[in-house]
Every structure is written in C-alpha cells, then in structure tokens.
Amino acid sequence: MKKILFDFFPLLVFFGCYKYGGMHADATAALVNAHLSGVMAGGTATAEQAPMVLATIAGMLANAGQIVYLLARGRKVDFMLWLSLFFFVVFGGLTIYFHDEIFIKWKPTLIYWCFGVGLLGARYLFNRNAIRQTMGAQLELPDDVWERLNLMWTAFFISLGFINLFVAFVLFKGDTPSWVSFKAFGATALTFVFIVGQTFYLAKYIKDEEA
C-alpha cells in the first residue's frame, strides 16, 4: 500500500492542487502572479489558467521530491521516475510559461508511448524482454508467454496514450477539470483492470507450475 501511495503521490498532489485552485480561483491567480510572473509569458495568468499552473508546479516538486527522498535513503531511483520528472520539467515548464494546459495534457501520452516503444526496442533491438526481467523473479512462465506479456504491455501503453489524447481533446475538449479527474482516476482504473485481466490470463500457467 505504501508503494502504491508513493508511486501515485505526484498525481495526487497534482489533482489536489488543481481542485483546490479551482475552488479558490481568484486567490490562486493572485498567488501565481505574485510568485511566478517572471516565468510566465505576459507575466500574469487568469483565474481560469492559474489552477493548472499551480497544479503543474506542485506536481513537478512532488516528483522531484520523490527522487530526492530515494537518493537520500541510498535507494535506487526507477527509470520511470526519472522519465516522469523529465517530461514534467519540459511539458510542465511549457505549461507554466504559456499558462496553457495543452502541454501538460500531452505529457501522459508521451510517457505511455515511451514505455511502449521502450518495451519493443528492448526486445527487438537488444533481445531483452523487460517484462520478464521485471517479473521473472516472482514467476516462472514459458518463453512464449513472456513474449505475449511483453506485447500485451506494449499494446496497453500505446493504447492508453491514444485514449488520453481522445479524452483530453475530443471527449472533454475544453473541459480541463474532467480531464484532470480522468488522469487521476480513469487512467488508474484502466491500468487496474488491465492488471486484473492479465492475472486471470496467467492463472492457468501458475496452476500448472504449482501442479
């Protein structure tokens, strides 16, 4: 449970700050304009734009704080955290500078696609099955099953990237609060459903191994 909360900490911070900023839009705009005017185009953000600016910088700090915490404790920092921080800094920085949410809406998609392409690249360029390397210590499965799992995760990440774009720019076009809620809960629910489905798929192989 602690690991799950730790992994989702920046997302929860982002969601909480955005909702708080939306409920206190004028005060958030005053806060953002007082402290971030030097890094925003035009020097000011409107009450409508300010909650996203606040949430973005809070999410960036939360992500960076995770890495600092792990390094301070002498623990390994997962590549996913570094990748997330990189995209947060780049696209979060653009979001803050232009006070435009379009950049931060692209961030999840690019991360998902990086994971998907990374899985394919590792398998077919370096002959490494990243899913097997991650889960191999806990499971013993036939080689063909590991290959299917790798392709399943690849397809899931790429599909999730497209789903995020559809939700952000088609389904909830112009409705940023709904997209923020999807990012916090919808994408998480889809991931949970995928993992549950994968567990059912692997059940027969686990039973065969135990037998």
From TrEMBL:
Subcellular location: Cell inner membrane
Transmembrane segment boundaries: 50-72, 79-98, 110-126, 151-172, 184-203
GO CC, one annotated term: plasma membrane
Keyword Lipid metabolism (UniProt): no
Family membership noted in the UniProt record: Belongs to the YciB family.
Function: Plays a role in cell envelope biogenesis, maintenance of cell envelope integrity and membrane homeostasis.
Protein name in the entry: Inner membrane-spanning protein YciB
Record organism: Pseudoduganella rivuli
The encoding gene: yciB
